[in-house]
Design goal:
With 142 residues, the protein is mainly β. The chain has two domains: 3-33, no CATH class; 38-137, OB fold (Dihydrolipoamide Acetyltransferase, E2P), CATH 2.40.50.100. It contains one helix and eleven strands. It has one helix spanning 3-13; strands spanning 20-25, 28-33, 43-48, 60-65, 70-73, 89-90, 95-101, 104-109, 114-119, 126-127, 132-137. It has a five-stranded antiparallel beta sheet, with no helix packed on it. The longest helix is centred in the N-terminal third of the chain and has 11 residues, at 3-13.
Length: 142
Amino acid sequence: MEPKELKKFLDSLKGTDIEELSFESGESKIYFRRNESAFTNSQASVLTEPKKGNGKKEKSMVAIKSPMVGTFYHSDSNDRPPFVIEGNHVSPGQKIGIIEAMKVMKNVTSNVKGKIVKVLVKDGQPVEFGQELFLTDPADVK
């Protein structure tokens, strides 16, 4: 691939959320990996639990949602531990999962500071755009 073509190809990736890409054509091979710290594309929404019958105050939870359609993974590989489990504290920008679609891997990062209260998806489970992946308690911070 000529340098001009390579520059044009890389420029075309700037407007996308592709973080990692491997491409082979004939004798040309390209491996592209975007800097992880530049992205915190996971969506979040605030959920409020209903008041308990004993009159305790409401507890707000923040749901971290899927930024894309694909297959969710809790770790880099089967022999590695999950990035986070229930009870772990997370901070904005922290990698908490991976979504794979058509051999393209996208990191799922936290955009909240708090404690993972509930993991809502299983390893290897297909997920939809905007699907809730984790529930966090932003009031429970270290």
